[in-house]
Fold each of these.
Amino acid sequence: MKVIQALSAAVPDPISSVSDFRFRRPLERIREWEGEIVLASELQKEMPGFNAYKGIYKPALSTHALWIRQTNRGVYPDSDPVFYPDGSWTYRYSVESQHGKLDESLATYKGLLQCMKDGTPVGVFRQTADVSGKTAYRVLGLGIVEETTGKQFIIRGEPINETSKPLSEGVVAPFKPFEFSPTPVEEVVRKLRERRFTSIIRELYHEKCSLCEVGYRMHGRPLALDAAHVIPVKEKGVIADLRNGLLLCSNHHALFDGYAWTFDKDYRVLVTEDREFRQSAMANHLLGWEDKRLPNLPSSQTNYPATEAIEWRLSEFRERQ
Ligand SMILES: [Zn+2]
C-alpha cells in the first residue's frame, strides 16, 4: 500500500512528526479510510486498541492519543461534525467530566492535550447505523486538536487544499473555481481530495439526487449516486471545494455531463431545447423539473454550488444549444 507522504508541497504532513512506526501506520490507515464506513470487525483487526477501548485511546507507549471513538450509546452525545466549503470539518468531542470540568489527570485527556500542544493528528471514528446487522463506524478522518473548552475538545479536519492552514471556525474561504497548483499535485493527494469531496457531498445532499431525490441504498451503502463537479475536473475545475459539486443519481449525472440540462444561479432547472432530446426524454422525469428549483440542496446555503461555477456551466450549456 502506498504511503501518503505529504498533503502538498505547501503543507508539511503532520503524520511525519510521529516517529514511531507503530503509531504512524495506523494514522496513515485512518487517512486512507477517510469518509468510508468500515465494519467494527475490520477496525479491530487493523486499529490498535479498537477491540478494548472506547472514547479516547492513548497507547500506553505513547504520550499522544491515537484516536477518538464515538459510540451510539455514549453517555455524552456529541454533535454532528460541521463541514466547510473548502472540504475541512470541525468536530466537537464531549468528554466525560467531573462536576462539568475536564479531568486533566486522566491519561487519555493528557494524551489529547499533548496532541493539541504538538499538532499531532488524531483519528476520529463515529458509530453509524449497522451495516447488514454488523456494527460499523464512519471514519471521519484525521484531525488536529485545536482547542478545549473545558468540556469539549474541538478537532479540525486536516487541510487538503494548497491554501494550507485551516481557517478559523466559522470563516468561509473564498471560492476559487479552478485548480491552481504551482507544483504538480501528487496522485495520492488528488485521490484523498476526491474521496473527501465524495463523502462530504453525499452527506450534504442527504444521500439523495439533487434533482430527482432518489437515494438508492443496498447493503447499508448508497448506490448509483455520484458526487458530480459543476466545472468538470478535466476542465481544471476545483476538485475538493464543495461549492463546485452536487450529488446526482447516475442517470441525471450522465445527462448533466452531456449538457442535456443544467441550472441557473437561482438553482432553477434548464433543459436543452434540442427537439430530439426532448422527444426521447418524454419517458424520463427530467422534463417535469424544468423551470423548477432543484428540490434537494444542502441545509446551509454556504455549501450550495457557487455562482461562478454555475455561470461557467451555463455558458457551456448555451454553446451547445
Ligand atoms: Zn436523479
Amino acid sequence: MKLDFDSHGGNIEKEARRLGLAKENIIDASASIVPFKLPKKLTNYLINSINNGSIKYYPDRSYFQVKDAIAKWHNIDPSTILPGNGASELFTWAARDAGLNGISSLPSPGFGDYQRALKCWNAAYIHNPLPLSWSNIQPQSFPIAPKTNVLWITNPHNPTGQLWSRSSIENLLTNYKLVICDEAFISLVPEGEHQSIIDLTKTHKNLIVIRSLTKFLGVAGLRIGYAVTNPDRLSKWKDIRDPWPVNSLAINVTNMIMKDSKMHQKRLKKIHRWVKEEGKWLHMNLSDFHTIKPLPSTTNFQLIKSKISTLNIIENLKQRGILVRDCRSFINLNENWLRISLLKREQNIQIINALKDYVK
Ligand SMILES: Cc1ncc(COP(=O)(O)O)c(C=O)c1O
C-alpha cells in the first residue's frame, strides 16, 4: 500500500505553501541538517563563482583535484573515491551491485532511500527488525546478522541515532558478498570518526562506504557525497552514470573544505560541541513530558516514543510553523513515533514550548 505522506523530512517549500507562511518563518526540525551557516570562505566562493567563470565549463569528469583532497583527508587512495550528486545518487549505484549479488537486508526502521535505490534495479530485499530500545552506552554492537547476501548499514543509524561500533561491523564483513555502509552522519557525532570503517575498504573489496556533506556543511541543495570502494567497482559505475552528475560548485566547495584542515577542524569542533550541548538539553527537556520518551542518541536527531498517536501533535506544530518528522514511513515504526532534529537553542526552546501545549 502506498501511504499518502512524505517519506522524507525537510519539505519546507511544500509546507510553507500549504501553511501560507514564508519559508524563512518555518522551524524545520524534520530534516537533520546542521543549522550553522557555511564557513565564510565557502560562501564567498559560491557568491563569486557566477562572476568568475567557474560555471562556464563542464565539471572535471575525472574529479582529479577533489578526489586527491578527500583521499588526503581520510588517508586513502584517490582511485577508491567517487564523488556523487549527494549520497542518494551513490545509493543508486550501490543498489545496482546489491541486486547483482542477491538479496539485501535492510535493518528497519531505516533510511527509506535504500529501498528506492534497490527498486531502480528490481533488486530483492527484506526488512530485518532492529531492537527498539537500547542503553545509553555508545557505540553499541551492531545487533543483527541477517542471513542474506548483502547488508545495508547506517552508522550512526537513522532514525534511532545509535552509533555502531567499528569492531562489530568489521566482524560481519566476511559474512556478506557486499556490505554498504552509509556514514552520512558520522562526522557530526563527537568521537564518531573512530567508528568509521572507511579504511577497511583497503582490505575488503566487498565493502562500499558512502559519505555525504549535506548534513555537515548544511548544503542539502548543493548535492555532494562520495563513495569509497574498490576502483574496479567504481569504474563500472562510471561507465554507465550520467556524464556530469556532480556540479562544479559542489566539487569546488568539497575540495576547499577537504584541503583546508584548519577550517574543517573548526567546523567539526563547533558541530560536536552543539550536538553534545543541545542534544543533552533537548533530551532533558523532552524527558519532562509524561506521555513521550526520547531515546538516547549520539547525533543531531532524537527518536521519541509516544504513548498515544502523534499525528495531532505533528499537525498542531505545523500550524505554528514547526516541522518535526512523522515516522510512519519508517518500516516498524508507526504514528506513535516522532523524530526531532536539533536546531539552535532559541529554536529548540520554541519547539519545547510549543510541545507543552499538546503533550502531557
Ligand atoms: C542516513 C542518510 N543517508 C543519506 C542521506 C542523504 O544524503 P544526501 O543529501 O547526501 O543525498 C540522508 C538524508 O536524510 C540520510 O538520512
